[in-house]
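Lay summary

Proteins are chains of building blocks that fold into shapes. Our project writes down both the chain and a compact code for its shape. Here are two examples, one after the other.
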Amino acid sequence: MRHRSIIGASLAVVVSMTLSACGGDDGDGASTTVRVTLANHVWTDNIKKALPEFEKQSGLKVEVTQLGEDQLSDQYNVKLNAGSADIDVMMYRPLQEGRLFAKNKYLADLSTQVKANANWDFSDFQAGPVEATTYEGKPVGVPIITEQEVLYYRKDLLEKAGLDAPPKTLDELKAAAAKIKESEPDVAGFVARTGKSAAVTQFSSFLYSFGGDFVDANGKSAVASDAAKQAYAFYGGLIKDSGPANVSTDMSWPEAMAIFTQGKAAFYTEANSLYQNATDPAKSKVSDQVGFAPFPAGPAGSKPYNIPSWALGINESSENAANAWKFIEWATSKEQTLAQQKAGVPGARASVWENPEGTSTFPKDLAEAIAASTQAGVGHDRPLVVKVAESREIVGQPIVDAITGKDAAAAADAANTAFQKFLDDEAR
């Protein structure tokens, strides 16, 4: 998504795995060298270690180009725009550039491939991540890393406040946050992202749980719906009334997480992928008191996002699509997904979450919260558009306005007008 803590430095690292014979052409003219472009990520580090196994089993050679996030985007902009065949497999962010890539026909249609091998089992992938890697009804990617929004909380503060369980509803969260802030003057009842763009992804779960979305079924802006107005007012009001004193309206996850891990907040809604920042004693003063719970239910139930932060796709211009798919099929297999998840990388396969071995390295309550999140999870955490950054600036403005005490409904109306114009312009 966006977590630079797990995406490495900017220098490109090109790794050529050469256990198998040098890549030439196989009988049908396709290269036996598969060129794979991946982001600096722990998933990439893990898959590189396992590559000799794949090369031995397949007889293929895998050439990995590993890049920092910015360099990855730059390379895709240059090579994909030029129709280059230099890339066979590409690691990409479905919710950031997936719509752009699919619209521009950079991503190959994988409809045939995902049905070819029953043992690989495409039906095992969770609905939310599959939704995010589908374009116009066709799969164009396979999700490899997922995120869900969960509730982080302080066990000791709940006990002190006489609360025997974390809140199950948003109304309970609001009441508990207010109670703790009133009784603990130096502690905020609740903290979350506040920056106009940064907050959009975490606000999305509130929006869905109130019954809203960014766009309606007809593709029109929905940020002025009654549900959206209620969600904006609730999220902003929760931070305004129970958040940190003199709260900044420019916080992304590092700032919000720091407040929580310094022991200055009771509740925090955030992506599960960041949990080790809260449970690592080297990073958190309250590591031994952190608990996790499913996202609290709103009027429409508990509907957190369940999204793929990264996926694998095949370059439409690749002349080696069959062997590219062999790599993807292996890298996203049940065995590799389980190995990745045991190493701390949340996967998109339902079977891995149902396997005790797949959750053995996660805190028990976090694994349970994630499992609950995947049941009714929504497959996007921001507007599904081509110009994602611009859209987030628009739909995020009412969040800031609500936090600062302005009229959330009026802000939503203004954002709705601007967002509809944005959608109309993008549709031209």
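And here is the second example, written the same way.
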Amino acid sequence: MKTGEQIVQELPWKWGVQGRIFVIGGLGFMFDAWDVTLNGFLTPLLGSYWDLSQTERGLVATGNLIGMAVGAVVWGTIADRMGRKRAFAITLLIFALFSVLGAFSPNFEIFVLLRFCAGFGLGGCIPVDYALVSEFSPRRIRGKVLSAMDGWWPIGATICGVVATALVPIDGDVRWRIMLLFMILPALLLFWVRRGIPESPMYLAAVGREEEARTVIDDLVARTGADVQQYSITAEPPVKRTALSGVKAVWSYSPRITSASWLLFVSIMLLYYAALSWMPSILRREGYDDFAAFAGTTLMTAVGILGVAVSAYLVEVVGRKWVIGISGPIAGAALVLFAIMLDVGSAVLVWLAVFGFVIQIAIPVLYCYVSELYPTPLRASGFGYASSVSRIATGFAPLLFGSVMWPILGLPLTFAIVTAFVVLAVLWMAYAAPETKGRELDTLEIGFQRTQMGYSPDSR
């Protein structure tokens, strides 16, 4: 007899069923991208408005990204305890509330605090969204679906860039407030739409809510037109974890997998966020006006949409590890060449476009891969901790980048150091973590067994 998980993962894909969850989850991801990208456009405007030093300008992105780091930890853990659906909606509501307040900040200190709070809400979107979408996706196309999820990122980043560029004629003292307010209405509408999504049946089964899990599974079978089959659900009591015990759980599950996940997240996202947070300022420093600097950054994010499309194809053809292992270092090399040729006119835009394209081949597969490495009770928190560690590192990166690395080391050497870190991470991944292509979510090469704290792999 099949399990409920197998029934869900063998269902035919229907855009009106799983596709609806994909779109709603992806829109939340789009707002995450919009908000992170906004930091880069806000930095030069706020720097002029409040006459900020280079170090203070770094805090524009740092406050927001650190809030996201805390949110990823807290909401990943909450989602494993209270359910994907409720956490799914609350995160976006918190983000919308503090974004409105941030637009009316009377001084820089309060602005940083409110951006931290907005980041706290939005930081929970990625781990919650990926856990939910992955648990509804058929196994045969799960890699494509999760990789395609990242397509919402360059879309959100590009919309942010288009809005920022379109607002250039408005006085900078008012423009930054309008930028913050611009995305509030769509965020609230998405919060309303999210109320109608079902809870993950895999989560319901894992925490012992068998009857509710069967209701969701039976509804999915009926709506997708699949054959009705008998299936079993092994109801298990919920595993209650604090943030600290959750960290212990993912490390107890597998130190090698968790270390590889964290290294990949930190190195690749550090490379991306360093470019994203400072690119408008870098281009302005080279003599570009606001319109050209904002448009150049928008080009970098826009070509990423094509990168995600390529990523969604390669992830099931080549496999997760190969795509990450090749595209991550190439993206870093493109950024180094951008920095070296910064004074060579059109070459700047060429290498900026190459970086934007290739990095968005790596990131979707990274998100897909890490979300598949953990079993259901640890999936949201395992992904959330990896994401939060990267947010902490990238949160301090704008501060370190703007006040130390860029002024002292220069752009080429700075980007070369981060690229070397990416190479180190993919080499460790090649040794320490298994390939997950085509596997059931709770079945890895090394197997696993339940422990008191969650799941941990058997020895080989």
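What can we say about the second shape? The first helix runs from residue 4 to 9.
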